[in-house]
Amino acid sequence: MQSPSDSVYPAHWEADVVLRDGGTARIRPIAPDDAQRLVSFYEQVSDESKYYRFFAPYPRLSDRDVHRFTHHDYVDRVGLAATVGGEFIATVRYDRIDDRGRPAKEPGADQAEVAFLVQDAHQGRGVASALLEHIAAVARERGIRRFAAEVLPANTKMIKVFTDVGYTQQRTFEDGVVRLEFDLEPTEQSMAVMRGREQRAEARSVQRLLAPGSVAVIGTGRTPGGVGRSVLRNLLDSGYPGRVYAVNHAFPEGGARLDPEGVPGHRSVPEIPEPVDLAVLAVPAAQVPEVVRDCGEHGVRGLVILSSGYAESGPEGRERQRALLRQARSYGMRLIGPNAFGLINTAPDVRLNASLAPQMPGAGRIGLFTQSGAIGIALLSGLHRRGPGDGSIAGISTFLSAGNRADLSGNDLLQYWYDDPATDVAILYLESIGDPRKFMRLARRTAAVKPVVVAKGARHTGTAPLGHTVPTVRIPDSTVSALMRQAGVIRVDTVTELIDAGLLLASQPLPDGPRVAILGNSESLALLTYDACLTEGLRPLRPHVLAAAATPEDFRTALSAALANGLCDAVVVTAIPWVGEEGVASPGEGADLAAALREAASSAAPAKPVTVVHLAMDALADALAAPPPSGEALTPPQDVPSPSHNASPRPDGVPAHPGAPGTFGDATAAPQRPATPPPAPATDSAPTASPSTASPAPATPPAPLIPAFPAAERAVRSLAQAVRYAKWRRDAADPGRVPEFEDIEEAAAGADIDRLLDELARHADITRSVPLPAEDAHALLARYGIPVRPAHPAPDPDTAVRAAARLGYPVALKTTAPHLRHRPDLGGVRLDLTGEAELRRAYAELTDFLGKPEELRPVVQPMVPRGVDTVVRAAIDPAAGAVLSFGLAGAPSQLLGDTAHRLVPATDRDVAEQIRSIRTAPLLFGWRGSQPVDTAALEDLLLRVSRLVDDHPEVVGVDLEPVVVAPHGVAVLDATVRLARPPATTDLGPRRMPAY
């Protein structure tokens, strides 16, 4: 059944995977030159495991067995191996069988028998589960749709591997053997199982790096100074309780003691008599391969490589970096770097500072990841200035600066932070996104339980820094921003904004709405805050201005009243220095005011966010950021949830709304925009579980820490980000649904696509996108209930008249030349032509003014009801995935970039929000007295386009322009569709580590 081309070694099946315990393994096809590896592997398997595999004693493999298990056609017979250090630790194979369970000889057999063997020392690490994911993906690629496996009843571990995978299964028992049969089509349950295993494994791999039992610093100088000695000093000063070793090949033989640190020194890692969990490398790049080999053979679990001279240095360094990654993964080690700054864990039982940061940050609730050491330094320094010491407002839980991030990336940290009870806010500085599709998926899941704040560098250059060997993402940065918003990510522009947003989100509960109370002892500062709120889209209440000499008690009373007011969702306190009765500044004014504000905030129920804007009151900011003095009773009420989990709607289910103008506490009516789009309608799908239940809630902070800002704009911007994020969290509890359309012909469309690709392959490279002829494109769209209005070519006036007669008057005459297409402003369109005379006159005008018919390519179309011209697109980026875009046709989308984007598959809630999110949306909803158009029909169209590209990955581009949205219905006047062979692997495939 196989073909010669299929017998070629399939290199794209190779993959590195993270196992259940956090280690890594390489999965690859078994080849003929693996015979000795297979024999060695089998010799290390216990007799019991061999019995479970072959149902009989089978002490050794015969030469015939070895040949059979190492020679495959990669179609009907496939074998995969999991390797560590180049040696097999597990194998899996399938053999295609017919309906009677015999080797298949005829085409069309879509069932295979599958069997595993895992070395006893590696059982329980999730190796079999990972192999099953990959062998199932291989089988689907080779046309196999069903697996069968026979297992002895006593082999409970292997039965569990099959039953836990989530596929649709059948189980029978006959002749003392359990027979399992299961379909290989991914299901919602199987995807959930795979994603859950991926998250737990990758989180565990990060946890092993952040909490090692022992650390070796390799490249420690014999004299003070230098990178290695500095890291060793930082590690010891941080209070790390584990074993620490210094390694330098220049140390004397037999070991030494490094003073004044008192750390044992060794010439190499193999000389260390105990296991080493983490190795920090500060040696020249030329020495790194030898050190990595020593670490791998000694069983080191993870590496932090501070050394430079890799991809950031040019092509040779890039190859050196790839070789480094391959070497580290061959031993099952995770890698931070190269060119890394290091990692920090402030947990009291770890206290790890394996970085170049000379000062251990204070412990707190913020997790930090950066790809840049310089930005890492800036973030740590900025947070230290805002709140030094353990328990302060600016404390961190973990920090990792990955440098060139050849292996460990922000995706891994998101997996770890997702259910880390010590982290309330995740902050990432990214210069490149190696796997945008996975990043969006992980960010969305993490944002459902805690805020994710991202700043991205290199936004406008379109290229990643030299050290980042990642695939190029072709979608514009504006689209990336829109997709981040859809995923619930809070995107900011600067390091300062990263810190501002992190401090507010880590210390304050999420607001229930956009209504903001403002109070303080300066009218000018209050008005600046009021204006900033309007600029950020918040709804400020009338400011409550206290006397310039207001006391801390006055502030406490005013803040308590504001927090008790049901018409406000958050409070901004403004403060300037006040003067005592004798004309001098009051001593201790900052500490006294901070205590008063904390007292008021701690007594509020329900809790509301409070932030402070101050001028020349640094002592106030310091006091608000520091933990309260020992014994100060300022614990929040028992019913106040943790800050990052307080995103539930109001008890009565009514969304926040502005109050009426009036005295303090009344909402100031925001200026009304004409014909503002109505809110997206609620869906009728069953609500999902509340995001706040997805992971354990972190411990409640011991006292209300309040962020303080030296400028109103910074405070309000951070508060506005919290308001938008809180709304996203409430909406994410009911994400909507992907509807099922009874009139969609999915199977027929798939058959059409296969036929068209075969036809296109005869004269085009279908690994790249190829446009379909108009007739085929329109037929494919019709399969999904997307009719395109006919357009008849009119190369001369007589042909135009005949076309109009067939269509019926009135008609439209328009040009389709590329330089005139979708440009009615250039006069290439004539509408409402009611008869032959008008049509001939219009044809003559077009050809007289714009060019010859062969240049203009005129067509005749039937008239459709007048409405709003829009554009609907779906584009597939190999890295980011499928993106659905919508905007108004012409200048709004092309000139102003007023386009909304959503990831595919889009839900009914997604598309309802999408069409309402563009700035020109009022034109759809009756702006200035015009008739509203049929947005329900528009939403239906967007959902159908989303389904088309989601169901068929071969559809890599859809462009509908213009789409006329009338008061009743929509009309697609022109459409293009592009096809290409889908990539071999996608984010829906088996889990694998990226390889750049």
Q: Your description of this structure?
A:
With 996 residues, this protein is of the alpha/beta class. It is 32% helix and 20% strand. The strands form six sheets. Strands 1-2-3-4-5-6-8-7 form an eight-stranded mixed beta sheet, with helices on both faces. It has a seven-stranded mixed beta sheet with strand order 11-12-10-9-13-14-15, sandwiched between helices. A seven-stranded mixed beta sheet has the order 17-16-19-18-20-21-22, sandwiched between helices.
Descriptive labels:
flat, 8-stranded mixed beta sheet, 996 residues, 39 strands, 7-stranded mixed beta sheet, alpha/beta
Strand order of the largest sheet: 1-2-3-4-5-6-8-7
- Helix percent reads 25-40%
Radius of gyration: 33 Å
Number of helices: 27
Largest sheet: 8 strands, mixed
What is the strand tally?
Answer: 39
* Percentage of residues in strands: 15-25%
Shape: flat
End-to-end separation in angstroms reads 34 Å
Classification by helices and strands: alpha/beta
Task: Round the mean pLDDT to the nearest integer and report it.
Answer: 87
Low-pLDDT runs: 631-642, 644-702
Per-chain topology:
Blueprint: E1 15-18, E2 24-29, H1 35-43, H2 47-54, H3 63-70, E3 77-84, E4 87-97, E5 111-118, H4 127-141, E6 146-151, H5 156-163, E7 169-174, E8 177-183, H6 188-210, E9 214-218, H7 227-237, E10 243-247, E11 256-258, E12 263-266, E13 278-281, H8 288-298, E14 302-305, H9 315-330, E15 334-336, E16 342-345, E17 352-355, E18 363-370, H10 373-386, E19 396-401, H11 410-418, E20 425-430, H12 436-447, E21 452-456, H13 477-486, E22 490-492, H14 495-507, E23 515-520, H15 523-535, E24 539-540, E25 544-545, H16 552-564, E26 570-575, H17 589-602, E27 610-614, H18 618-625, E28 708-709, H19 712-732, H20 746-760, E29 770-771, H21 774-783, E30 792-793, H22 797-807, E31 811-815, E32 829-833, H23 836-850, H24 853-856, E33 858-862, E34 868-877, E35 881-888, H25 891-894, E36 899-903, H26 908-917, H27 935-951, E37 955-965, E38 970-972, E39 975-979
Parallel strand pairs: 5-6, 9-10, 9-13, 10-12, 13-14, 14-15, 18-19, 18-20, 20-21, 21-22, 23-24, 23-25, 23-26, 26-27, 27-28
Antiparallel strand pairs: 1-2, 2-3, 3-4, 4-5, 6-8, 7-8, 11-12, 16-17, 16-19, 29-39, 30-33, 31-32, 31-33, 34-35, 34-37, 35-36, 37-38, 37-39
Helix pairs in contact: 6-11, 8-9, 10-14, 11-12, 14-19, 15-19, 16-17, 17-18, 22-23, 26-27
